[in-house]
Design a protein that fits this description.
Structural class: mainly alpha
Helix content: over 70%
Strand order of the largest sheet: 1-2
Oligomer: single chain
Strand content: under 5%
Order of helices and strands: HHHEEHHHHHHHHHHHHHHHHHHHHHHHH
Length: 527
Amino acid sequence: MKQFLQSEEVKEMCRFAGEVGIRGDLLRELRFKWAKEKMEENDFYKSLDRLRDEKEAKGEKIFNEQAVVAEDNPRVASLPKRKGKIKYKIYGLDLSDPKWAEAADKIHEREEMVWPQEPKAISGRCKLVMEKIVSLKMEDDPSQLLAEWIELLQPSRVDWINFLNRLEQQNPDMHLKVAELVLSEESFQKSITDYTKLIDAYARDNRLEDAERILKKMVETGIMPDILTSTVLVNMYSKAGNVARAKEAFESLRSYGFQPDIKVYNSMIMAYINAGHSTSAELLMSQMGTRDFKPSEEIYLALLWHYSHRGEAAGAGRIANIMQFEGFHPTIESCSLLVEAYGQAGDTDQARTNFDNMIKLGHRPDDKCTASMIAAYEKKNLLDEALNLLTQLEKDGFEPGIDTYTVLVDWLGKLQLVAEAEQLLGKIAELGEVPPLKVHLSLCDMYSRTGFEKKALQALGVLEAKKEELGPSEFERTIKALIAGGFLQDARRIHGLMESKGFAASEQLKVSLMASQSSSLRRPTKR
């Protein structure tokens, strides 16, 4: 019976039943039923063979008697001898060649991989142990339960795959831990695909150290990264911002003779952009063009964003021209980034030209784009032009938002127009928005320089509460404003906080601090 349970015809019927949704005890009963039918069929044909053998034996006995009678008149009758090997040809192919036997063996091996054997039925104590593993917490160690499960089931690779798939669905956290332990099991029959899947899973969870540990373990076993593994590594290191390792994995693809696909190119370009290597990003984009790969609009916008935030107007203009040449139409986002780039560079005229062109293209300026234009006017202190622009936009239905008000508060604060700045604060409150960090920085600067001690310290308290968000430029501006307003003790305290964050003071700030220590300035009286 066991022979027929393992026959190919019964396995094929079980696979088909499994595909249509039959599982568990019903599938087991059907398997036994089909095996029994196969056994009965085999017994039937064996009985036919016995009948045939008996008939042939009787015929041979009669033939021998006739041969004895015919010995008096012998006749010579024989077939010609065949020379060479038998050849089987189908549609011109000589299938008698030994290479076709090797091909058949390889096809059989591949079929076993495509249609693997069914996993063993899990029941009794083995099932209980499996349920315990599935219910484990992240901090638990599954080693002992896993060893007990292996001893009870004696799993093959198909059993391992079935177990890991269930664990991934029901307990994803424990799945990665067990999948790593399984790599050391001989019955799992690990391959490079198993290592790559585990590295990719750790990479998607931003667990860079775990992914590198699996990569090291893979290399130690003598398995070198292939194209899939290298692709995963490029994406992982690009996402983590490790440009050097991403570039190493990217170059390894070429060393293997493989050409990166467009996804790998995009990941590598984004890694260069995030690291500030805009030249390398553009060079890689030109290499994509030689392979007839077209960078996506998101890649161009990311590079345009990089140039605009650095105030590199030439680079931003070059990318905008390339985008138009490649067939990407100007959007409100690309136009806003161009306005910001020229504004940061201090080219107010070019910023206004791009702002007007955006309106001509039918795009209505949003709050962020308008704030960039106002900030460009702030660079040149052109307050009248900025107010005229706001008046014109408000006539066309524009309503200033938090970004525009933030720029105006900062500008009016620098001009020490306290009443006007506080009026804009009231409008921010009417919007129901929480004032951003830059507003509190502007208020601390303004109140310190104008001598409003209570309001200055109140704004300073907010900045100290958000010290994790402060950069070196924000620290320096705050310290300089406190020194200018005579708040020397507060200035020294903020300077100490700045150093504890690892930021070094500029030479100008150091001179100001030294001068404040030797001066006899008093803190201003409350106003």
